[in-house]
Each structure stands twice: as C-alpha cells, then as structure tokens.
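Run log, item B.
One chain of 269 residues. Sequence copied directly from the ordering sheet:
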Amino acid sequence: MGRGPNGVDPKSNSTQERKATVGVQITWQGGPSGRSELWLVADGQPSHRLLSVSIDRMAIAHPLAQRWADQADSVPEFLEMLHLEDLIDLDTLRRLLAEHMPLYRIWARLREFCHEAGDIGEFPAASIAIGSLGEVPSDATVCLPEAQVVEALAAWCRFEDGDPQALNESNLAMVVATLGGLAGQRLGLPWEAVVHFGDWLTGLITGWLISHGNEEQLWQLENLAAQTAGGGPQHIGPACYNQQVWVVYRPAVAAVVQALRRFGHHAQA
C-alpha cells in the first residue's frame, strides 16, 4: 500500500479526517413556558428550531439528542434518529426534512428505487445549489432555479398525497433529470452514461422526454428495461400513469446501469 511523502498512509489520514468531521452541531435554548428548545447550529449560531420539550423530559431528551448528534453523518440521519427515539413524530420528521433539505424526499425515493443497482447514498446537499447562477457556491455541481424547485416540490407533494399524475409536471421532470444525473455519478457511471441515465430515469418516472440528442440510446435503454421488468417488449410505464413502475422496474434500473457501464467501457476502449 502506497504512503504519502511523510510516510503516512493517505487512506488512513482521510479516514481520520472523516471521523473528525462526523456529527451535527446542536444547542439547547430556553423557550416559552419554561420549555427547552433544540436548535441546529450553523456558523456558530442557532439556525433552525427542531423541537421543544418540557423540563421533566430534559433528563431523557438531552443525552439522547447529544448522542445522535455526535454519531450522525448528516442532518437527515440525525432527524430520523430523533424520530426513532420518539422525540419527534413522523409528521414533524417529514416537515423538518422538507424544510432543511427541500429535495430530500425526492432523493430518498430515488435511492430506494435505484437500490438494486447500488446505493446512491445520502442526499448530495453540497452538490446542489438552489437559486440564480450568481448565487452558486464554488463547490456546487448543479444549480436549480428556485422557482423551478418550488413548482417541482408542489407537484411531488401532490404525488405523495395520492395523485400519481402529478409526476407528469415539467418542472419536476427537470429536477428529476438533475437528481438522476447525480445518482448516476454516485453509481460510478462515466459522464456520457450519466446523462443517458438521468434522461431515461426522468422519462420512466415523469413521462417527459428530456434528451440531449440521445433519443436512440434512450429507446434502447427503455427496451432493455421493459424486457427486464416484464419479460417482454411491453412497456408499463411511466410511473405517472402506472404506480407499479416503482416496484416492477427496480431490477430494470440495475440492468440499465449495467448496460451503461458496458457502454462506458466500450467508449473508452
């Protein structure tokens, strides 16, 4: 195993750095009626109120919250642990996730859908900027206009409330294409294959064709996916018209990713 110029194993060093940065910053503050409030901390200041507990519950809530804050790799993970410890209910969990990371719920659904192809991991908050191009942080990979995200989230909420055809919304399609591309990167696909994967996934979920001059490749991927999902050439999608897509097409996602990996190898050869 190679070592750095000072004889230090680079992997060991990076592991130590990751361990040092793990954790979520929180603080407790006094609230109304003698209650205590738990807040997220950003830049050394309380930034987002999470919950409020009575004094008699502080002996239980304080050590539980601190333990999971120290161990969590992300804010969503920390919030989920607060829910599992009965410090917040399910509705509060969903609201907090939506407030802190507005695209988190869409990413979580894609993560579940793509699971057989591999784990796309936690929501890539640092890679996504919401706003105008002039507001994009230097380390962000993509920028989504705020108005587009607002409309996309409104459509997604309608979908979650039982309206599958809400998926067939143009702003949501653009957001899914962006998240699908990031998912393709997480799955280790080369750049051109990432574009194909994001475009194909968007069509499968929303029914919108978002292409980059790759219609032939998208059609080939959909034929492969239909064959994998249904054992024949019949197409049962998109998900906006057939909710079975979310279940039946899971093996198809894995087949498409494998095909795109082969495509990437051939392109490099």
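Observations after the first pass:
- The mean pLDDT is 84.
- The beta strands are 26-30, 36-42, 45-53, 128-130, 142-144.
Flagged for discussion on Thursday.
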